[in-house]
Amino acid sequence: MVLFCLCWCGCPRPAENQSDEQKNRHYVAAREKLGALDYPGAIESFERAIDDNPRSALAHFELGLLLETRENDFAAALYHYNKALKLRPNAYPADNIKQRIPGCKQELVKADALGTMQPGAIREADRLRDENHALRKQILALQAQLAGRPAGPTNWQAASGPRAAGGTEPASGGSAARPVGGRTPGASSIGDRAGAAVAGNATRPRAHPVKPRETPSSIARLYGVRLEALLAANPGLEPRKLKVGQALNVPGP
């Protein structure tokens, strides 16, 4: 009886059925984003699918494939490949994973050799990647918070009140009436110049030196711009042949 209990407790739980995995709403959303070539969005949705169901071999495999081919994050890809292989060792996608693992390990060996020559650069790239991941979570939390907040009156609407006849607003404390819209002479030109300066700074491209293991996708996500905009700002760029130290133009968001 004791042996039976030990065997029962020690046996691993079977992986989820493939059809059940594919019904997960985050997994479905990830597949749709893949079809739309939204790779960062697909990565995020597969991560959420794994949060919902850590035993989803398909989600682990799909996420590992994206991390390998789109992000060049071979260590993270190996982690998810091994998870999927452990969950489903004798069925799909086990054969595909066994074919991809050697290539990931080879790329990691190259990265280790580079880290020996430039350890500071590798540590800085890892720090930036972790910081980018944390910022992305904060942005998602703020977006969710703002989506649930009701829209209120603007500061101008709250302060303006009814307008006086003749196109002016009644003044308080015996002061002269203000023109409609509350704008004083000269304010328009000053505001326009300030707005033009801000717009010019926002659209001015920035220079980004490529760091080890960075890809156009990871750089675009770091600055919060679309991958297509980054590629358009760098005509002739070959995404798979980035060189460490190569300067890329990063357009404004």
Strand order of the largest sheet: 1-2
Return the CATH architecture of the domain at 19-117: Alpha Horseshoe
Shape: globular
The counted number of beta strands is 4
Question: How would you describe what is shown here?
Answer:
This protein is mostly helical. Among the domains are: 19-117, Tetratricopeptide repeat domain (Serine Threonine Protein Phosphatase 5, Tetratricopeptide repeat, Alpha Horseshoe); 119-145 and 205-253, LysM domain (Membrane-bound Lytic Murein Transglycosylase D, Chain A), CATH 3.10.350. 62% of the residues lie in helices and 5% in strands. The chain contains twelve helices and four strands; from the N terminus they run H-H-H-H-H-H-H-H-H-E-E-H-E-H-H-E. The protein has a two-stranded antiparallel ribbon with strand order 1-2. A two-stranded antiparallel ribbon has the order 3-4. Strand 1 (168-169) and strand 2 (178-179) form a beta hairpin. Helix 3 packs antiparallel against helix 4 (39-52), helix 4 packs antiparallel against helix 5 (57-69) and helix 5 packs antiparallel against helix 6 (74-87). The longest helix has 29 residues, at 119-147. The protein is globular and about 50 Å long. The termini are far apart. The relative contact order is 0.08.
